[in-house]
Write a structure and sequence with these properties.
The structure holds two protein chains of two kinds. Chain A is built from ten helices and 13 strands. In chain A, helix 1 runs parallel beside helix 3, helix 2 packs across helix 4 and helix 2 crosses helix 5. The longest helix of chain A has 17 residues. In chain A, 50% of the residues are buried. Chain B is an alpha+beta fold. Helix content of chain B is 49%, strand content 7%. Chain B is built from 17 helices and six strands. The chains are: A alpha+beta, B alpha+beta. Strand 13 of chain A pairs parallel with strand 3 of chain B.
């Protein structure tokens, strides 16, 4: 089996992935939300670099947009990308989380949210999962026409119809629907057979860290854009340390 | 023994804090880290004894326990602490709240006991000795230490006056006397003396010097409400004129070298585009300007969707308004900003002593000097080790 490029703690995932998103062009506030999503992915035992790197690249290369308009028609709120591009999940994820919190504030479970042409649907599920705000069902059709679902539950548990790394990584635009789900759905017949990710995954990760594989250089390259090259002058004038290593 | 860099939880192979934060014995912030420092100190002393035995054989003598106890562990601390203070506002609130609550408990005591007077005298004596031994190269700190010595002398004279001691509310009167007559360092030292001499009354507050509260956005809040929060809780930031370039001359950044936080001059150094989002006062100032330019009373959720560059500061404002001690109420990018003051603030909560600034950006300190070693936790006075001073055996 291939060795990981690096093993990261959850704290390091927050640090590197947040700044990688800033390096790709996201505002710091949204990048922090992306950092939380990446932790959620890593804490589930999945490789967040492998899953998110294409989305970051897509933003960096201006293939995905950070502009959208939101409209509310009856029970449906729709987020539509502007400018004829696919919508970046890094923008749509925080938007749907804000919508969930607004609905929660008025105890409204009747509405549902639709994001049109989002570049990486699974990252919407990651954003909702990281929010830890109860039961939500996230659905989309992949490029082959297969219906994909993620169901978030209590205490960070979640289920999905997706199997294998490739499905989590699938980066092709789709319309994503997000709706509130009853907690009983988690143990219902429809979901009983699906793969479950539980808090146990997180405990394993806290013990051993998150192995990051071949996509790490992409994350690190984007992250590095947030760093300032060191010079002798900047070390002298701006470093909080002495001139010798023993300080 | 000295430690060099001490990295945060989850960095460079360290475990995430989450791994231990639910265990009652390790819940306190930095409890495990400081226990580790304490164990290093113990190990060092054991190592000295071991080497002596190996090299000296029968001629080797053990360290006098009083000398062992006086040995602290050195540390040099730099800019990494400053971003920590900004990034953990709720935790900082909890620390300061514990300290303020402790002080309020002590000064509210109407009467005092012979024991509490005796303990205060003991700590005052120890502090006088301790500060007499505190000598640094830094001129500014030296003048502060000299003034603190004078303050302590005044306090001692005040305390020697029987009339002062007979009256009720002695602790509050001591605090007021310090506020009216002492330097800032003298006042802070007086607060420490008051707290140290009332351990039974205040020690349990330490259990609450931790938090799991995160910084969360409240998108359903109206923009008008957010504007009102700014006026109410961030007037200290809104009073700063950030149109003056000197008010944001400095910036904080991560260097490529060891991902080390550094402090730059925006108008002279490269890298301002990579500035860390730590300038809370300036960001609040800009947010306020933007809010004023929006005519409709939209929700915060809609506002941050239209202006994602404010998402970070909005989230912070909405969270910290519930925690009055959360913010460093100053401009940390001002041309006159001295990061060393932030460092000292944090180090004080660690119980660091012998603060020895080497520039405006880093300092040397001592930890656990005077703390009992594991076999010295006996007797009623084993926790009365604050303000250690050189044992007579060394001085002789």
């Amino acid at each position: 089996m291939k060795s990981p490029e690096i093993v990261l703690s959850l704290n390091e995932i927050m640090f590197y992935f947040t700044r990688a998103a800033v390096g790709a062009g996201l505002s710091f506030g949204m990048a922090e939300d992306f950092g939380r999503s990446s932790i959620w992915i890593g804490a589930s035992g999945l490789d967040p670099a492998r899953i998110t790197s294409k989305t970051l690249k897509s933003l960096d290369e201006a293939q995905s947009s950070l502009c959208a308009s939101q409209t509310e028609i009856g029970a449906e709120t729709v987020l539509t990308p502007s400018g004829g591009k696919q919508l970046s999940a890094l923008f749509a994820g925080p938007s749907v989380c804000d919508w969930i919190l607004e609905r929660k504030a008025v105890s409204d479970k009747t509405q549902h949210f639709v994001i049109e042409q989002v570049d990486h649907p699974f990252l919407i599920a990651a954003a909702v999962g990281a929010l830890k705000s109860g039961n939500w069902e996230i659905c989309w059709q992949d490029s082959g026409g297969t219906l994909c679902n993620v169901l978030t539950g209590q205490h960070g548990n979640w289920k999905t119809s997706l199997e294998g790394n490739e499905n989590f990584q699938q980066h092709s635009p789709a319309d994503v629907s997000i709706k509130s789900a009853e907690s009983s759905l988690f143990s219902s017949k429809k979901w009983i057979e699906e793969t479950t990710y539980s808090e146990k995954n997180r405990q394993v990760v806290l013990e051993s860290g998150v192995p990051i594989y071949e996509a790490w250089p992409i994350i690190h390259k984007l992250f590095s854009r947030c760093l300032v090259p060191s010079t002798e002058e900047s070390h002298k004038s701006g470093a909080g340390a002495g001139l010798v290593d023993t300080d | 023994m000295r430690t060099t860099a001490v990295y945060g939880s989850g960095k460079f192979g360290c475990a995430d804090r989450e791994k231990i934060s639910n265990r009652s014995e390790t819940r306190g912030s930095f409890q495990v880290e400081l226990l580790t420092v304490y164990l290093f100190r113990w190990f060092t002393i054991e190592l000295v004894e071991y080497v002596a035995r190996q090299r000296g054989g029968r001629k080797a003598v053990s360290l006098n326990p009083e000398i062992s106890k006086f040995l602290g562990i050195g540390n040099a601390t730099g800019l990494g602490m400053a971003p920590f203070l900004i990034k953990h506002p709720v935790l900082i609130h909890k620390w300061v709240l514990a300290r303020e609550t402790a002080l309020s408990r002590v000064v509210a005591l109407e009467s005092h006991t012979p024991e509490s007077l005796s303990l205060f005298r003991k700590f005052m004596f120890q502090a006088t000795q301790h500060i007499a031994e505190w000598n640094v190269e830094d001129e500014q700190q030296t003048s502060r230490i000299i003034k603190t010595r004078e303050d302590l002398k005044q306090l001692s004279n005040w305390f020697a006056n029987e009339e002062n001691i007979k009256q009720p509310l002695i602790w509050e009167r001591i605090l007021r006397f310090a506020e009216a007559n002492f330097s800032l360092e003298g006042q802070e030292l007086t607060v420490s003396l008051l707290l140290e001499s009332h351990g039974k009354l205040v020690d349990e507050l330490a259990d609450d010097m931790q938090t799991s509260t995160g910084i969360e956005l409240e998108p359903s809040m109206s923009l008008n409400q957010l504007g009102e929060l700014l006026q109410k809780s961030f007037n200290w930031a809104l009073e700063i004129d950030f149109d003056d370039p000197e008010k944001q001359r400095r910036f904080w950044y991560y260097s490529e070298e060891k991902l080390e936080p550094r402090f730059g001059d925006r108008y002279a150094d490269p890298g301002a585009e990579q500035e860390m989002p730590l300038a809370v006062a300036r960001d609040v100032f800009l947010l306020n300007k933007k809010i004023k330019s929006v005519t409709d009373d939209i929700s915060v959720g809609t506002f941050v969707q239209n202006h994602p560059e404010f998402r970070n500061i909005v989230r912070r404002v909405q969270t910290v308004v519930r925690f009055p001690y959360a913010e460093i109420r100053d401009n940390i990018v001002d041309a006159e900003m001295r990061p060393i003051d932030l460092l000292r603030f944090k180090l004080a909560f660690f119980g660091a002593s012998k603060f020895d600034p080497k520039s405006e950006l880093w300092t040397r300190i001592t930890l656990f000097q005077g703390a009992p070693l594991p076999d010295q936790f006996v007797g009623n006075d084993s926790d009365e080790w604050a303000f250690p001073f050189c044992p007579d055996i060394v001085a002789a």
